[in-house]
Every structure is written in C-alpha cells, then in structure tokens.
Amino acid sequence: MTLLFGITVLSATLGCALAVAQEYVAPSGPPPVRVARPDADPVPLEWVPPALAQLSLSAPVKSNFTLDRTMLGIAAGLVPDTDAPTRQAMNKLDGVSVHTMRFNEAGIPDEGAVAAVRASYHLRGWKHVVTTSDKGSPVHNGTTDVWVVLDGMNVRGAVVLAETPRSLTLVTVAGNLSPVDLMHLRGHFGIPKLDAGDFKDAPAQ
Known about the structure:
Helix 3 packs antiparallel against helix 6 (111-123). The protein is globular. It is α+β, with helices and mostly antiparallel strands and 205 residues long. It has helices at 3-8, 18-21, 50-56, 69-77, 84-91, 111-123, 179-184, and strands at 61-68, 93-102, 127-134, 142-151, 154-164, 167-177. The chain has a six-stranded antiparallel beta sheet, with helices on both faces. It has one domain (3-198). InterPro entries: DUF4252. It comes from Telmatobacter sp. DSM 110680. Keywords: Signal.
C-alpha cells in the first residue's frame, strides 16, 4: 500500500506535501506499539496505544506514515505566501505521524477499544482540550478528540483522534508551538477545522 492512499484520506490542503510523501510506502501491518519514556520523549511520534494497534488488526484497509522535519520544511515552503502563518506553524513542527484504518460496512468492531485509546492519553497525563461530535454531516459523521502536551504556554505536541462509523484516524504532531500555531494547522494533516471557541478544557474523563 503506498503512502498516496494515506494522503487521500487526509485534508486536501495537505496536497502541498504530496509530492514528497509519495516516496514513502505505508506498512501493511498494524502500527507499532513502543514503550515510551514520558520524561525523555513526551511526544513520541511512533507510539500508539495498544488498543489502537489491536483495532488495526481488524481493519481491511490501513495506512501508517511519518513526515520528518525535512519533509515538513519542504511542505512549508510550498504553502502560498498569502498563508504565511500556516507556513510558520509548519516550520515549528519536528514531525507528524498519521495512522488511518478503514473498516467494512459493519463499522468499528469494538467501541470499547476506542474508549481505551482515549483513556490511554488521559493516563499519560495529556491535556484533553476538546471533544466534538458532528453527526449532521454525511462526510464527517463522528467524533473528534484533541489532546495536547503543554510546556508553560506553549504546545509541545498534540494528538487528534477522529472517529467515523467506519474509520479511525490518529494524528500526532510534535514541535514547539503556540496555541495560535495549532489553530493555523487546522485543516492540515488530518487536524479538523475546529472553531477557535472549540479549544477549551474538555470534561474530566
């Protein structure tokens, strides 16, 4: 499976990185589960919750890939001059990883596993800033969760989990961002186009 498939499930605004990302081939197996050291590596791009790796085994179609700082720099250089804030935000990223899986008509086989994915970020101490549900749209019918790792007022990384009835997408971004930078990344790399007012503390899990 080529990375081109993985790109197609993301926002069309990532097209500026497509020419670079096509050089990668997405692994056919489940995303790797690695032991992360929170103190040494607070935003591990390659780590995924064990429950997500287990769900991946049931997904007929899946795609996993990572964009490093070099590729992100090239992508930022292709952003139009009229969108300088987005280019600046991309230049602050150290990496982005995306894990996408699509299921058959029966949908996600174990909703409890999805709940376990959400709980894993709570247990890691990540700040849950927003949960949104959009059940009125025929395209984005599902739930989106956002967690962030904060260093004072800056965002060291973020995770977006987007769930629809037949798919899951997990996006992890690492870098030294401000909250405003995170807003400019909306619509890129699978990060939903949330309104500014959506970024607020979510209810305790």
